[in-house]
C-alpha cells in the first residue's frame, strides 16, 4: 500500500488499495472526525460532501472522504466494482487516515458501506465508530430493491452479457448493474436480522424518494436498537436530499452526533 503525496490542497491524495488508485481528501482536526461515504456512481465533490467539508473546516473538525474505484477521481472501471471491493477500499482509507473516534456519514449505497464497515471494524477489535448518520439509506439495495423487479430482458442481459443498463436521473450516462455486483450484494446483506451498530444512528429519509422508498428506511430502523436511533422523515424530500433545507438538516444531524461523541 503506497501513498502519493498531494501536490496542493486542491488535488486529492492517492492511496493504492489492491492495485486501485483511490482518490482521498483528508483534513486533520478535532475528534470525533467525520468520514463521508458516497452513493452508487456519486463522487466526493458532490453538494452534500462539500457542504460537510466546509462545515468541518469551520468547526476545526477532521474530515475524510474518498472516491470508490470507478468513481470520480479514482482509478478503475465502474463496472468492475462490487460492494466487497468498495468496502475494502473504504476500510483501507479509514484505517490509513483516521485517528480516534469517527462518525460515518453514508448516503444511499454509502449507508450500506457504513453498516458493513462497522461490522468489519468491530470484528477486528476496532470500536472507534462513534456514530452513524445515514441519508436515504440503501443497504442491501441489490437484493431488496433491484432483484425483485428485474424484467425478463434484464435477467437475459445479466445471463448473456453479465450486466444491464438503466437510464439515470442524475447523469447522462446510464447506471450499470453487473451480475458480479448483484451476486456479491447477496454476500454483504445486513438486513437479514438485528443489526447491532454499538453506536447511535440518525437516519434522514425523504418521503418523496422515488429511488429508495421510505419503507426501506423504516425496515432498517426495525432492525436497529430502538433506544439509540433517531429518524428524521422529510415530507417533500427526494433521494438527493441536496436542497438548502436538506443540507441544513444534514449539518445539524452531524453536528449533534459530533457533540454526543465529544
Written account of the structure:
This protein is of the alpha/beta class. The protein contains eight helices and eleven strands. It has helices spanning 47-59, 83-97, 109-123, 141-146, 152-160, 179-187, 214-222, 244-261; strands at residues 3-4, 13-17, 20-27, 30-37, 61-66, 102-107, 129-135, 163-166, 175-178, 201-206, 229-234. Strands 1-2-3-5-4-6-7-10-11 form a nine-stranded mixed beta sheet, with helices on both faces. The chain has a two-stranded antiparallel ribbon with strand order 8-9. α2 packs across α3 (109-123). The longest helix is centred in the last third of the chain and has 18 residues, at 244-261. Mean pLDDT is 93; it is low at 4-9.
Amino acid at each position: 500500500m503506497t501513498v502519493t503525496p498531494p501536490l496542493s490542497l486542491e488535488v486529492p491524495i492517492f492511496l493504492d488499495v489492491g492495485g486501485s488508485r483511490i482518490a482521498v481528501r483528508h483534513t486533520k482536526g478535532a475528534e470525533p472526525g467525520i468520514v463521508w461515504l458516497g452513493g452508487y456512481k456519486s463522487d466526493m465533490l458532490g453538494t452534500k460532501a462539500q457542504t460537510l467539508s466546509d462545515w468541518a473546516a469551520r468547526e476545526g473538525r477532521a474530515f475524510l472522504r474518498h472516491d470508490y474505484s470507478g468513481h470520480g477521481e479514482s482509478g478503475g472501471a465502474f463496472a468492475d466494482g462490487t460492494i466487497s471491493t468498495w468496502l475494502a477500499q473504504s476500510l483501507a482509507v479509514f484505517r490509513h487516515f483516521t485517528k480516534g473516534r469517527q462518525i460515518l456519514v453514508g448516503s444511499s449505497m454509502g449507508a450500506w458501506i457504513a453498516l458493513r464497515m462497522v461490522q468489519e471494524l468491530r470484528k477486528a477489535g476496532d470500536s472507534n465508530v462513534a456514530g452513524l448518520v445515514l441519508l436515504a439509506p440503501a443497504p442491501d439495495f441489490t437484493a431488496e430493491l433491484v432483484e425483485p423487479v428485474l424484467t425478463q430482458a434484464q435477467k437475459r442481459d445479466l445471463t448473456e452479457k453479465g450486466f444491464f443498463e438503466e437510464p439515470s436521473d442524475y447523469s447522462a450516462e446510464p447506471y450499470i448493474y453487473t451480475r458480479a455486483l448483484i451476486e456479491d450484494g447477496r454476500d454483504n446483506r445486513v438486513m437479514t436480522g438485528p443489526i447491532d451498530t454499538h453506536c447511535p444512528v440518525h437516519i434522514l429519509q425523504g418521503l418523496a424518494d422515488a429511488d429508495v422508498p421510505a419503507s426501506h428506511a423504516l425496515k432498517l430502523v426495525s432492525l436497529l436498537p430502538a433506544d439509540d436511533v433517531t429518524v428524521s422523515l422529510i415530507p417533500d424530500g427526494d433521494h438527493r436530499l441536496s436542497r438548502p433545507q436538506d443540507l441544513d438538516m444534514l449539518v445539524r444531524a452531524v453536528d449533534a452526533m459530533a457533540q454526543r461523541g465529544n
